[in-house]
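Below is how a single chain appears once it has passed through the pipeline. First comes the sequence as given, then the structure the pipeline wrote out for it. We keep one example in the README because the format questions we get most often are answered faster by looking than by reading.
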Amino acid sequence: MDQGLILVNLLVQLGVAAAVASALVRSVEFKKLLFRESRSFKQRIYLVLWIGIPIALGVWIRFIAKSFFAGDLSFETTILLGVVAGRFNGALGGALIALPAVLHGEWATLPFNLLCGVIAGQLRRIAPDREDIWSFSPFIDLSIYRMIRRNLPTPRLFDWQVMFFATIVGLRFVHTELARFFPRATYSLESPNLWVEAAIYATSIMVIGTELKIWNSVRIQIKLEEQERLLLHSRMEALQNQINPHFLFNTLNSISSLVRFDPDTARELIIKLATILRRLLNSSDSFVPLQDEVDFIDNYLDIEVVRFGRDKLRVVKELDPATLEVMVPSMLLQPLVENSIKHGLSSKIEGGSIYMRSRLTDSTLTIEVEDDGVGMGSASFIERPTGLGGNGIGMANIAERLKVLYGERAKMTIDSRQGRGTLVRLRLPVLATEGAIPIALYEERSSTRR
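Resulting structure:
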């Protein structure tokens, strides 16, 4: 074969490897299979099929298009499968990839692929750290640099990166010798020119390293997104936990004021408080159905009604039944109702009313908590955070949690007029949830970085 044509095929081979690796890793199912540490037998078979079928087609194309050899990545892919997924996957994938060659008379390809898969899988087993597999570089000089850095100041007798590099070169040499002794029994691109032959060896290393780099970049991105998800979860839990002591402090103050002159009422408040705390302690869910929030508010209002009197505190609910199953952040309504009572109605001698409304329009949940209390004047809570809730911890917490969970997709508005009351309106996107983070929002954040 012409030496220039060989070099062209080597360049095309690198492009084919990068294209196949990039196309495969775009699949969510493939990523789940590839980045698992342990796999069931069924998952191993699926992983082999995902990788093996496209490469087997490339081998088959080599027989159809006589002058196109770049699609045959059987040697590199077999090693890649073994080192990424283990001996079984390496051997099985090598057998699948060798099938078109065997059917066309290249019988030595099958045992050689099995050998490559088993050796690569064994190399995976002896790796001191699985991260070494993903950090393998196709750039030899950088690998040597990392080897020197890892071995200073204390030398290590075993360097996995160097062993992996030597294994690829060694198996490639075995393939060369096999093709020399049995030229019709297996396919191997060879050249009498020393520099071109060196380029063939280097291309095999580059193909494996390039595919590992492409997959590892996606793997690192997934890890970063998972860390971000955990960070959002932790931050949201911290904000949620900030509410509970605030609520507990206010309720205990109410109980302490009743202990001396009305012990029976104080006992009733303690029982109701215990019911509320039991719900808080037994629930680890950060998102709950709106119905649960309403039930929680009912228990809270039972306490407040005892304090204020049923003739001074009235609660009107206008809740759309379709909204009661929508998932909302837990402890979302209690700070709103608490602020309405303590900073809107408590200073009114005649008392007042609280209105709770919910409706569902165009995949948006709207929740309103309104009172006819003294109001906040013309300034909003965001402009004067100390105007509600003492130091504003309850309302500020709601605004911060909505920002953490929904970003710009959730809105909280406050409409207040002096002497006429306050209306707090929440607009939340209706999202499916997984754990503590809305799935649709999480996927949207992830997709913006791809």
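The two ends are 41 Å apart (CA to CA).

See the next section for the split statistics.
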